[in-house]
Design a protein that fits this description.
mainly alpha, 8 helices
């Protein structure tokens, strides 16, 4: 019974990290999208290239690519996708659309650079926040985690490799590549390599702190527990 009481707040904390992480991720992606003429992210380059070659829409190819990646990851790990993976595919789009509607487009060149770099940093933070609780990584981040475990490489190395490969494939398909695309491909993985362990440490700290409070309040009362009067 006591374990059930402990698990409920821990699960709530993990889901809070997950949802907040998706919102932060959507905010970061939207920031980069507000900077016109800098290029789009590597995966968007890939989706746009597929759209130019085979029709449909960029959004449709994003969903198709996500489904294929989820299937590959599930077969590799030999387990069905977690509910968080499905929620990721739905909520990220909602958050991106909301912040795209809310955020203004920067006008000055230096402000555009600052916004784009900040957006990339916030994107990395969002990835760390929603991946840390292990409620289900999104399709592309699931691929990153699978390759990290399989190759035994650093998260930053694997992420950068994926971004560069996808950007190159999208460019060969005719997708638009700019300086922003190159920046994300080269540095997002490095940023995630810092944000993921830090957010995991923060989550574990909050869990241990919560369990400490639980142990304190479930302890036996002494006669002088409150007023020091025995």
């Amino acid at each position: 019974m006591r374990n059930d009481r402990l698990n409920r707040p821990v699960t709530g904390l993990r889901w809070s990290f997950f949802i907040v992480g998706l919102a932060v991720l959507g905010f970061g992606i939207s920031l980069t999208m507000q900077v016109k003429g800098f290029g789009i992210g590597p995966w968007d380059v890939f989706h746009y290239g597929l759209y130019k070659q085979f029709g449909l829409t960029v959004g449709t190819w994003s969903i198709v690519a996500g489904i294929v990646i989820v299937l590959i990851s599930s077969l590799t790990l030999k387990r069905i996708p977690q509910i968080g993976t499905i929620l990721n595919m739905v909520l990220i789009g909602v958050f991106i659309d909301f912040f795209n509607w809310l955020l203004p487009e920067p006008e000055w060149f230096l402000s555009k650079i600052a916004v784009f770099v900040l957006g990339t940093l916030i994107t990395a933070l969002g990835i760390g926040l929603y991946v840390a609780p292990d409620m289900g990584a999104g399709p592309r981040d699931s691929l990153m985690l699978v390759l990290t475990d399989w190759l035994q490489w650093k998260v930053s190395t694997v992420r950068n490799g994926i971004e560069i490969t996808v950007a190159l494939a999208g460019w060969l398909l005719g997708g638009p590549v700019g300086l922003g695309t190159i920046f994300i491909a080269l540095f997002l993985g490095t940023f995630v390599g810092y944000s993921l362990p830090l957010t995991k440490q923060l989550l574990n700290f909050l869990i241990r702190k919560g369990e400490g409070y639980e142990d304190f309040y479930k302890g036996s009362l002494r006669p002088d527990h409150y007023d020091r009067i025995s």
